[in-house]
Amino acid sequence: MDNITNRPERFSEVNRDKGLGEILTPAEYLNRGIKVIRAIEDAIHTIPRQDTPYPDWNIRYFNPGGGNGRDSIERLCFGAMRNILADPKHPIDFEGYHWSDFNFHSKEYTNRGFDAVWPQFNCVCNVWVSAKVGTVIVQMSDTKTDLDIPGLDTPRLYNSELIYQAWRDAVTANLTGPSPQVVSKLTDLKYIIRAPIGNSGTLVTMRDVLLSQGVPKDQLESKVTVKRTIDDPSSDEFKMLMGTVHGRPIGRLCADHAESLNGKQVQKIHVWNEFIPSFGALIFELGEGKASTELEREQSTPRKGKSTTTQAPSQKPQTPHLPPAAPAKVTRKISERVKNLMKKFQE
Fold first, then answer.
1. Which residue range(s) make up the domain with 128?
2. Measured between alpha carbons, how far is 60 from 104 in angstroms, rounded to an integer?
3. Which domain of life does the protein's organism represent (predicted)?
Protein backbone atom coordinates (compact mmCIF):
# COMPACT_ATOMS: atom_id res chain seq x y z
CA MET A 1 0.00 0.00 0.00
CA ASP A 2 2.89 2.38 0.79
CA ASN A 3 4.22 2.24 -2.76
CA ILE A 4 0.78 3.37 -3.95
CA THR A 5 0.03 6.15 -1.47
CA ASN A 6 3.55 7.59 -1.18
CA ARG A 7 3.89 8.48 -4.85
CA PRO A 8 5.04 12.10 -5.40
CA GLU A 9 2.21 12.65 -7.88
CA ARG A 10 -0.29 11.59 -5.21
CA PHE A 11 0.90 14.29 -2.81
CA SER A 12 0.78 16.87 -5.58
CA GLU A 13 -2.99 16.29 -5.70
CA VAL A 14 -3.56 17.41 -2.11
CA ASN A 15 -6.06 20.26 -1.98
CA ARG A 16 -7.14 21.88 1.29
CA ASP A 17 -10.15 23.68 -0.16
CA LYS A 18 -13.27 22.63 1.69
CA GLY A 19 -16.01 21.08 -0.39
CA LEU A 20 -16.14 18.74 -3.38
CA GLY A 21 -12.57 19.51 -4.43
CA GLU A 22 -10.86 18.72 -1.11
CA ILE A 23 -8.20 16.01 -1.35
CA LEU A 24 -6.28 14.95 1.76
CA THR A 25 -3.21 12.76 2.06
CA PRO A 26 -3.64 8.98 2.28
CA ALA A 27 -2.38 9.09 5.88
CA GLU A 28 -5.13 11.55 6.82
CA TYR A 29 -7.86 9.35 5.37
CA LEU A 30 -6.29 6.35 7.11
CA ASN A 31 -6.19 8.10 10.51
CA ARG A 32 -9.77 9.30 10.13
CA GLY A 33 -10.87 5.79 9.27
CA ILE A 34 -9.12 4.36 12.33
CA LYS A 35 -11.00 6.83 14.55
CA VAL A 36 -14.30 5.95 12.91
CA ILE A 37 -13.82 2.20 13.36
CA ARG A 38 -12.72 2.60 16.98
CA ALA A 39 -15.75 4.76 17.72
CA ILE A 40 -18.01 2.02 16.37
CA GLU A 41 -16.24 -0.59 18.48
CA ASP A 42 -16.45 1.58 21.60
CA ALA A 43 -20.18 2.01 21.07
CA ILE A 44 -20.68 -1.72 20.53
CA HIS A 45 -18.71 -2.57 23.69
CA THR A 46 -20.71 -0.13 25.84
CA ILE A 47 -22.95 -2.06 28.24
CA PRO A 48 -25.80 -1.56 27.85
CA ARG A 49 -25.60 -0.35 24.29
CA GLN A 50 -27.18 3.04 23.78
CA ASP A 51 -28.49 5.27 21.02
CA THR A 52 -27.46 8.91 20.83
CA PRO A 53 -30.62 11.06 21.02
CA TYR A 54 -31.24 13.63 18.30
CA PRO A 55 -34.24 15.87 17.50
CA ASP A 56 -36.63 14.54 14.90
CA TRP A 57 -35.86 15.66 11.35
CA ASN A 58 -39.26 17.30 10.75
CA ILE A 59 -38.50 20.08 13.25
CA ARG A 60 -35.81 21.63 11.06
CA TYR A 61 -36.50 20.06 7.67
CA PHE A 62 -39.42 19.14 5.43
CA ASN A 63 -39.85 16.54 2.70
CA PRO A 64 -41.40 18.05 -0.44
CA GLY A 65 -42.47 15.44 -2.96
CA GLY A 66 -41.36 12.57 -0.75
CA GLY A 67 -43.41 9.67 0.53
CA ASN A 68 -43.77 5.92 0.91
CA GLY A 69 -44.84 3.18 -1.48
CA ARG A 70 -42.85 4.48 -4.44
CA ASP A 71 -42.11 2.26 -7.42
CA SER A 72 -38.84 0.76 -8.60
CA ILE A 73 -35.82 3.05 -8.42
CA GLU A 74 -33.80 1.49 -11.25
CA ARG A 75 -34.08 4.80 -13.14
CA LEU A 76 -31.86 6.59 -10.59
CA CYS A 77 -28.55 7.90 -11.92
CA PHE A 78 -29.91 7.77 -15.47
CA GLY A 79 -30.70 4.09 -15.09
CA ALA A 80 -27.20 3.10 -13.95
CA MET A 81 -28.41 2.26 -10.43
CA ARG A 82 -29.84 -0.95 -11.85
CA ASN A 83 -26.29 -2.21 -12.43
CA ILE A 84 -25.52 -1.93 -8.71
CA LEU A 85 -28.81 -3.40 -7.55
CA ALA A 86 -28.55 -6.40 -9.88
CA ASP A 87 -24.87 -7.15 -9.25
CA PRO A 88 -24.45 -10.76 -8.00
CA LYS A 89 -22.07 -9.64 -5.21
CA HIS A 90 -24.83 -7.60 -3.59
CA PRO A 91 -28.15 -8.52 -5.27
CA ILE A 92 -31.08 -6.35 -4.17
CA ASP A 93 -34.71 -7.04 -5.07
CA PHE A 94 -35.44 -3.50 -6.22
CA GLU A 95 -38.61 -4.05 -8.25
CA GLY A 96 -41.96 -3.12 -6.72
CA TYR A 97 -43.67 -0.34 -4.79
CA HIS A 98 -41.67 -0.66 -1.59
CA TRP A 99 -39.42 2.43 -1.71
CA SER A 100 -39.65 5.56 0.41
CA ASP A 101 -38.29 8.88 -0.88
CA PHE A 102 -36.89 11.53 1.48
CA ASN A 103 -35.87 14.96 0.14
CA PHE A 104 -34.67 16.68 3.29
CA HIS A 105 -34.98 20.42 2.64
CA SER A 106 -34.07 23.14 5.13
CA LYS A 107 -37.20 25.03 6.16
CA GLU A 108 -35.24 28.25 6.67
CA TYR A 109 -33.43 27.94 3.34
CA THR A 110 -36.78 27.65 1.60
CA ASN A 111 -38.37 30.42 3.68
CA ARG A 112 -35.67 32.81 2.47
CA GLY A 113 -36.58 32.08 -1.14
CA PHE A 114 -33.36 30.33 -2.11
CA ASP A 115 -35.27 27.33 -3.49
CA ALA A 116 -37.09 29.37 -6.12
CA VAL A 117 -34.74 28.62 -9.02
CA TRP A 118 -33.72 24.99 -8.45
CA PRO A 119 -36.22 23.55 -5.92
CA GLN A 120 -35.30 19.92 -6.67
CA PHE A 121 -31.53 20.39 -6.35
CA ASN A 122 -31.15 22.29 -3.10
CA CYS A 123 -31.98 19.56 -0.62
CA VAL A 124 -29.72 18.91 2.35
CA CYS A 125 -29.84 15.18 1.69
CA ASN A 126 -31.72 12.92 -0.73
CA VAL A 127 -32.37 9.38 0.47
CA TRP A 128 -34.25 6.42 -0.98
CA VAL A 129 -35.11 3.61 1.43
CA SER A 130 -36.62 0.14 1.19
CA ALA A 131 -37.44 -1.48 4.52
CA LYS A 132 -38.39 -4.60 2.57
CA VAL A 133 -34.88 -5.24 1.26
CA GLY A 134 -32.88 -3.44 3.98
CA THR A 135 -31.37 -0.92 1.60
CA VAL A 136 -30.66 2.82 1.76
CA ILE A 137 -29.51 4.84 -1.26
CA VAL A 138 -28.00 8.29 -0.64
CA GLN A 139 -27.77 10.26 -3.87
CA MET A 140 -26.64 13.69 -2.74
CA SER A 141 -26.04 15.94 0.25
CA ASP A 142 -25.22 19.62 0.63
CA THR A 143 -24.78 21.20 4.05
CA LYS A 144 -24.55 24.69 2.52
CA THR A 145 -28.33 24.69 2.12
CA ASP A 146 -28.93 23.84 5.81
CA LEU A 147 -29.70 27.09 7.65
CA ASP A 148 -30.61 27.68 11.31
CA ILE A 149 -34.18 28.73 12.05
CA PRO A 150 -34.21 31.99 14.07
CA GLY A 151 -35.55 31.43 17.57
CA LEU A 152 -35.52 27.63 17.29
CA ASP A 153 -32.82 25.93 19.32
CA THR A 154 -32.28 22.76 17.31
CA PRO A 155 -28.93 21.69 15.84
CA ARG A 156 -28.22 20.71 12.28
CA LEU A 157 -28.52 16.96 11.92
CA TYR A 158 -25.54 15.06 10.60
CA ASN A 159 -25.99 13.22 7.31
CA SER A 160 -25.66 10.03 9.32
CA GLU A 161 -28.69 10.98 11.40
CA LEU A 162 -30.79 11.97 8.40
CA ILE A 163 -29.96 8.61 6.84
CA TYR A 164 -30.86 6.77 10.05
CA GLN A 165 -34.13 8.63 10.59
CA ALA A 166 -35.13 7.97 6.98
CA TRP A 167 -34.48 4.27 7.60
CA ARG A 168 -36.39 4.40 10.91
CA ASP A 169 -39.39 6.11 9.35
CA ALA A 170 -39.49 3.68 6.43
CA VAL A 171 -39.47 0.75 8.85
CA THR A 172 -42.19 2.42 10.92
CA ALA A 173 -44.34 3.02 7.83
CA ASN A 174 -43.91 -0.60 6.84
CA LEU A 175 -45.16 -1.74 10.25
CA THR A 176 -48.03 0.71 10.64
CA GLY A 177 -49.22 1.10 7.05
CA PRO A 178 -52.68 -0.09 5.94
CA SER A 179 -51.29 -3.18 4.21
CA PRO A 180 -47.62 -3.74 5.02
CA GLN A 181 -45.90 -6.03 2.54
CA VAL A 182 -43.42 -7.39 5.04
CA VAL A 183 -42.66 -6.97 8.72
CA SER A 184 -39.32 -5.20 8.99
CA LYS A 185 -37.02 -4.41 11.89
CA LEU A 186 -34.40 -1.73 12.39
CA THR A 187 -31.77 -4.47 12.49
CA ASP A 188 -32.63 -5.46 8.91
CA LEU A 189 -30.47 -2.65 7.51
CA LYS A 190 -27.88 -4.29 5.27
CA TYR A 191 -26.81 -1.98 2.45
CA ILE A 192 -26.08 1.75 2.35
CA ILE A 193 -25.29 2.88 -1.18
CA ARG A 194 -23.55 6.19 -1.87
CA ALA A 195 -23.95 7.05 -5.54
CA PRO A 196 -23.14 8.98 -7.60
CA ILE A 197 -19.91 10.14 -5.94
CA GLY A 198 -18.24 13.24 -7.34
CA ASN A 199 -16.14 14.27 -4.33
CA SER A 200 -12.51 14.49 -5.44
CA GLY A 201 -11.08 13.17 -2.17
CA THR A 202 -13.26 10.07 -2.18
CA LEU A 203 -12.59 9.38 -5.86
CA VAL A 204 -8.82 9.68 -5.37
CA THR A 205 -8.99 7.36 -2.35
CA MET A 206 -11.00 4.84 -4.36
CA ARG A 207 -8.33 5.00 -7.06
CA ASP A 208 -5.57 4.45 -4.47
CA VAL A 209 -7.40 1.40 -3.12
CA LEU A 210 -7.93 -0.08 -6.58
CA LEU A 211 -4.27 0.46 -7.48
CA SER A 212 -3.27 -1.35 -4.28
CA GLN A 213 -5.54 -4.21 -5.35
CA GLY A 214 -3.51 -4.62 -8.53
CA VAL A 215 -5.76 -2.77 -10.97
CA PRO A 216 -3.52 -1.32 -13.72
CA LYS A 217 -3.30 2.45 -13.82
CA ASP A 218 -4.08 2.56 -17.53
CA GLN A 219 -7.28 0.61 -16.91
CA LEU A 220 -8.42 3.19 -14.37
CA GLU A 221 -7.54 5.99 -16.76
CA SER A 222 -9.51 4.37 -19.59
CA LYS A 223 -12.78 5.42 -17.93
CA VAL A 224 -14.21 1.90 -17.74
CA THR A 225 -16.13 0.56 -14.75
CA VAL A 226 -13.88 -1.30 -12.30
CA LYS A 227 -15.31 -3.11 -9.27
CA ARG A 228 -13.62 -4.55 -6.19
CA THR A 229 -14.81 -5.71 -2.76
CA ILE A 230 -12.76 -4.83 0.33
CA ASP A 231 -13.78 -7.17 3.15
CA ASP A 232 -10.91 -6.92 5.64
CA PRO A 233 -11.74 -4.20 8.21
CA SER A 234 -8.17 -4.33 9.53
CA SER A 235 -6.65 -3.42 6.16
CA ASP A 236 -5.41 0.04 5.30
CA GLU A 237 -7.69 0.10 2.25
CA PHE A 238 -10.79 -0.47 4.35
CA LYS A 239 -9.80 2.17 6.90
CA MET A 240 -9.03 4.74 4.22
CA LEU A 241 -12.44 4.29 2.61
CA MET A 242 -14.11 4.63 6.02
CA GLY A 243 -12.15 7.86 6.51
CA THR A 244 -13.61 9.57 3.44
CA VAL A 245 -16.51 12.02 3.58
CA HIS A 246 -18.74 9.21 2.34
CA GLY A 247 -17.49 6.58 4.79
CA ARG A 248 -17.49 8.60 8.01
CA PRO A 249 -21.28 9.17 8.11
CA ILE A 250 -21.84 5.41 7.84
CA GLY A 251 -19.50 4.88 10.77
CA ARG A 252 -21.23 7.55 12.83
CA LEU A 253 -24.61 5.98 12.07
CA CYS A 254 -23.41 2.62 13.41
CA ALA A 255 -21.89 4.22 16.52
CA ASP A 256 -24.80 6.55 17.28
CA HIS A 257 -27.36 3.74 16.99
CA ALA A 258 -25.53 0.74 18.39
CA GLU A 259 -28.62 -0.27 20.38
CA SER A 260 -31.25 -0.02 17.63
CA LEU A 261 -29.02 -1.69 15.05
CA ASN A 262 -27.92 -4.34 17.56
CA GLY A 263 -24.25 -3.59 17.10
CA LYS A 264 -24.15 -3.70 13.33
CA GLN A 265 -21.01 -2.40 11.66
CA VAL A 266 -19.55 -2.15 8.18
CA GLN A 267 -18.12 -5.51 7.14
CA LYS A 268 -17.58 -5.02 3.42
CA ILE A 269 -17.12 -2.05 1.10
CA HIS A 270 -17.87 -2.58 -2.58
CA VAL A 271 -15.96 -0.07 -4.71
CA TRP A 272 -17.24 0.98 -8.14
CA ASN A 273 -14.90 3.18 -10.15
CA GLU A 274 -16.56 5.02 -13.07
CA PHE A 275 -20.02 3.90 -11.94
CA ILE A 276 -21.16 6.48 -14.47
CA PRO A 277 -18.70 8.66 -16.43
CA SER A 278 -16.56 10.67 -13.96
CA PHE A 279 -18.54 9.45 -10.93
CA GLY A 280 -18.02 6.54 -8.56
CA ALA A 281 -20.09 4.54 -6.09
CA LEU A 282 -19.53 2.88 -2.72
CA ILE A 283 -21.76 0.15 -1.31
CA PHE A 284 -21.35 -0.32 2.44
CA GLU A 285 -22.48 -3.77 3.54
CA LEU A 286 -23.45 -4.02 7.22
CA GLY A 287 -23.47 -7.08 9.42
CA GLU A 288 -23.19 -8.26 12.98
CA GLY A 289 -19.82 -9.54 13.96
CA LYS A 290 -17.45 -9.74 16.86
CA ALA A 291 -16.04 -6.30 17.62
CA SER A 292 -12.36 -6.39 18.52
CA THR A 293 -11.28 -5.68 22.07
CA GLU A 294 -8.87 -2.90 22.98
CA LEU A 295 -6.05 -5.43 23.36
CA GLU A 296 -6.78 -6.93 19.95
CA ARG A 297 -6.79 -3.48 18.40
CA GLU A 298 -3.36 -2.71 19.88
CA GLN A 299 -1.95 -6.02 18.68
CA SER A 300 -3.41 -5.78 15.19
CA THR A 301 -1.14 -4.72 12.35
CA PRO A 302 -2.36 -3.12 9.11
CA ARG A 303 -2.26 -5.40 6.11
CA LYS A 304 -3.33 -5.32 2.53
CA GLY A 305 -7.04 -6.01 2.12
CA LYS A 306 -8.20 -8.98 0.08
CA SER A 307 -10.71 -8.66 -2.70
CA THR A 308 -13.06 -11.57 -2.10
CA THR A 309 -16.70 -12.40 -1.83
CA THR A 310 -16.48 -14.57 1.27
CA GLN A 311 -19.50 -14.00 3.49
CA ALA A 312 -18.61 -12.77 6.95
CA PRO A 313 -20.09 -14.80 9.82
CA SER A 314 -23.24 -13.41 11.31
CA GLN A 315 -25.17 -13.87 14.50
CA LYS A 316 -28.90 -14.08 14.98
CA PRO A 317 -30.08 -10.52 15.73
CA GLN A 318 -31.99 -9.61 18.82
CA THR A 319 -35.02 -7.53 18.03
CA PRO A 320 -34.68 -4.08 19.65
CA HIS A 321 -37.59 -1.85 20.48
CA LEU A 322 -38.66 0.47 17.67
CA PRO A 323 -38.00 4.14 18.49
CA PRO A 324 -41.06 6.33 17.89
CA ALA A 325 -41.18 8.41 14.73
CA ALA A 326 -42.85 11.30 16.53
CA PRO A 327 -40.81 14.49 17.06
CA ALA A 328 -38.40 14.27 19.94
CA LYS A 329 -38.02 16.96 22.54
CA VAL A 330 -35.66 19.64 21.27
CA THR A 331 -32.60 19.71 23.48
CA ARG A 332 -28.87 20.23 23.29
CA LYS A 333 -28.10 18.30 26.49
CA ILE A 334 -25.86 15.36 25.68
CA SER A 335 -24.27 12.98 28.16
CA GLU A 336 -20.52 12.97 28.73
CA ARG A 337 -20.33 9.45 27.29
CA VAL A 338 -21.90 10.61 24.07
CA LYS A 339 -19.67 13.72 23.95
CA ASN A 340 -16.57 11.54 24.24
CA LEU A 341 -17.86 9.23 21.54
CA MET A 342 -18.64 12.11 19.19
CA LYS A 343 -15.14 13.55 19.66
CA LYS A 344 -13.76 10.53 17.83
CA PHE A 345 -15.37 11.79 14.65
CA GLN A 346 -13.96 15.30 14.89
CA GLU A 347 -10.99 16.47 12.88
1. 1-347
2. 9
3. Eukaryota
pLDDT, tens digit, for every residue of 63-74? 988 888 887 787
How does DSSP classify residue 188?
A: G
Beta-ladder partners of 229: 270
138's enclosing H/E stretch is strand 135-141
Query: How far, in Å, CA of 114 to CA of 44, rounded?
Result: 41
Alpha carbon distance 142, 126 (integer Å):
9
What is the mean predicted confidence (pLDDT) over 309-328? 38
DSSP class per residue in 25-60: -HHHHHHHHHHHHHHHHHHHHSSS--BPP---GGGT
Give 209's contacts (C-beta < 8 A, 6+ positions apart).
228, 230, 237, 240, 241, 271, 305
What's the number of domains the chain is made of? 1
Model pLDDT for residues 195-216, shown as the tens digit of each residue: 999 999 999 999 999 999 999 9
The answer to whether the CB of 35 falls within 8 A of the CB of 239 is no
Enclosing H/E stretch for 266: strand 265-276
Q: What is the pTM of this model?
A: 0.82
